[in-house]
Design a protein that fits this description.
2 strands
């Protein structure tokens, strides 16, 4: 058996080539994940649909009712058909998509902040702080998330007045749902962050920071936390899909975002009595939810592979 020995010019070229940075390596891995790229394309399309569509259809048109046009099937004039009171479903899905995506993103921001705070404090300080925070976390994990969502939505629903932002009127239930989903979804991320902090807090760079008199807050947020961004990014990305699904669940049960604000979830709720006679009422918002969840999961899988520090593939 013969072995191939690299030539001297080839060795010199290899030595002259600078090593890949972590961001370059991550991007190369991400590009190899075809489904993640498909997910990115679908997400871009969904954002263009939800926010670019508002340039074509006004919110007044989306909320305009004409009972003489009720339950029209898809046509050239109404590509997605009309609903039970004559509103254009295409326009409704555009503005409903804005709220669904808003709920998913903002709820995950709340979830991420809470998860990082609890996990960082528990992992860094240990002792009674760790025991107390983790017992609270485990107690909340033992309560079904949907049950928490339903109880809190029922209790707080209708207590927040309508909100006017930039001329658009939002149901106060939007804020309630965002806060509820964010406040009931941080526990898994907290455990991930805690595990990362437990493995990193005894490393040399942390010990050196302590020796130089660096405060605990600086060590937590400036030294250890940046090294935990990879699992946080992956978890947060996947949580956006979970938040959108959670909003759809409780809206389908009539406890989510209330009129006049449309979401894909409460559009499904209004179609419950017309599953056979008017399938376009549920098909289009349901398909948009499905595409959103699938694309975000594809993106999360790609990020997980790209940001995995133990992966040796390029």
């Amino acid at each position: 058996m013969t072995t191939h020995t690299p030539s001297i010019p080839q060795l010199a070229e290899d030595l002259a080539t600078p090593p890949l940075t972590l961001s370059q390596l991550g991007w190369l891995r991400f590009r190899r994940h075809k489904m993640a790229l498909v997910g990115v394309v679908i997400i871009i399309f969904l954002f263009l649909f939800a926010f670019g569509g508002a340039l074509i259809y006004s919110e007044q048109y989306a909320n305009y009712t004409d009972t003489s046009l009720r339950l029209l099937p898809p046509s050239a004039e109404h590509p997605f058909g009309t609903d039970t009171i004559g509103r254009d479903i295409l326009a409704r899905t555009i503005y409903g998509g804005q709220i669904s995506l808003f709920i998913g993103i903002v709820a995950v921001i709340i979830e991420t902040l809470l998860g990082i705070l609890v996990g960082a404090l528990a992992g860094y300080y240990g002792g009674w702080v760790d025991s107390l925070l983790m017992r609270i976390t485990e107690a909340l994990l033992n309560i079904p998330t949907i049950f928490l969502l339903l109880v809190m939505a029922k209790f707080f629903g209708g207590q927040v007045p309508e909100i006017d932002i930039g001329g658009r009127v939002f149901s106060g239930s939007v804020i309630v749902i965002v806060v509820i989903i964010g406040a009931t979804s941080w526990m898994y991320l907290a455990r991930i962050v805690r595990a990362e902090f437990l493995s990193l807090k005894e490393n040399e760079f942390v010990l050196a920071a302590r020796a130089t008199g660096t405060s605990n807050a600086q060590i937590i947020f400036l030294h250890i936390l940046p090294n935990t961004f990879a699992p946080i990014i992956v978890s947060s990305t996947l949580s956006v899909a979970n938040a959108i699904l959670s909003e759809a669940y409780i809206s389908f049960l009539g406890l989510g975002v209330q009129a006049p604000t449309a979401t894909w979830g409460n559009m499904l709720d209004s179609s419950a009595n017309y599953l056979d006679s008017a399938p376009w009422l549920w098909f289009f918002p349901g398909m948009l939810i499905l595409l959103t969840v699938l694309s975000i999961n594809f993106l999360g899988d790609g990020l997980r592979d790209a940001l995995d520090p133990r992966s040796r593939t390029v």
